[in-house]
Amino acid sequence: MVDNDVEIPDEELNVSIPGAKGMLTKGRKWTKASRKAAKLQAAREAAPVKVEILEVGEKGMSIEELAYNLTMGEGEILGLLFSKGIKPDGVQTLDKEIVKMICKEYEVEVIDANPVKFEEMAKKNEILDEDDLDKLQDRPPVLTIMGHVDHVKTTLLDHIRKSKVAASEAGGITQGIGAYKVMVPVDGKLQPCVFLDTPGHEAFGAMRARGARVTDIAIIVVAADDGIRPQTNEAIAHAKAAGVPIVIAINKIDKDGANPERVMQELSSIGLMPEDWGGDVPMVQISALKGENIDDLLETVMLVAE
Q: Which of 99, 132, 161, 257 has CA atoms 20 to 30 A from the CA of 9?
C-alpha cells in the first residue's frame, strides 16, 4: 500500500493502465485513479488460480504449497484439520493421505506425482550412426500441437483435418495422444505430415512430454487474448528439453481484446524471439475458429520441417 500523495517512479510500478495508451511516460506523476488501476491489475496478475487436479508425491506436501494450490490461507487449512480432530503440532509438511482428505473437501482431484521429471522424459536419444547417412530417406515430419488447456489447440487440429475431435473427448479436455496424417500443399504438391494432439490440462504433463519426445517440430498455441499461461511455459520446456524446433501459433486473433504484439513481447522475454523481430522462432497469427492464416501456419511448419 502507498500513500496517495507519494509519487511512484514508473520503473518501480511497471504495469500498463487499462484504457490508457501504453505505459505512462517516464517521470510523469501518477493520478489516484491510475495508481489504483495499476495496483488492481498487478494484484490480478499475481493472484494464484485454484487447481482442479493436484499432483502429490509420496512425501506429501507442505502446508504453504497446498494453500497456494487451493488459493486459500494456511490458517483455513489448519482450521479444517482441527475441526476433524487432527493436530499438526507445528508440522509444516502434511502426509499424502491428509492432503488427499483436504483436497476431497474442496473438490480437487489428487493424482500420484510421477517420480520421473517431465524434462527427463522429453529428452531424445541419438541412434543415428555416420554410416547410416547414405541410407536416409525422406519421411513425413511428426508435428505436436501443445499449449494451454483453453487456447483452442483441438479446434486448430479440427480445421486442419476437416473433422471433429471434441465430440470424442470427456469434458472438452483431450485425455489421450491422437495421431493424424494430414496432406499439406507445398509448392503445388501435396506432402504428408503427422500431427499429434496432446492434452493441454496440467495433469497430463507426462503425456505432453512423451509427445515432445517423439516429435520433429512443436507447434505451441498461445491465445492472443490471454498470453502465456502455466501450461504454455511447461509445453515450451518440454519442447526445449526434447531439442525440437518451435513454431508459435498465436491463436484467437479474431477475439475482442486480442493483442498479438503483447504475446510476442511475452514470448521474447522468455527467450523465444520472433523471426519478424530478427529472431529465429517463426510466429504465425491465426484464428483456428475462422480458419484465418492456417495455410500460412502449415507452410511455415513444412518449411521448418524441410
A: 257
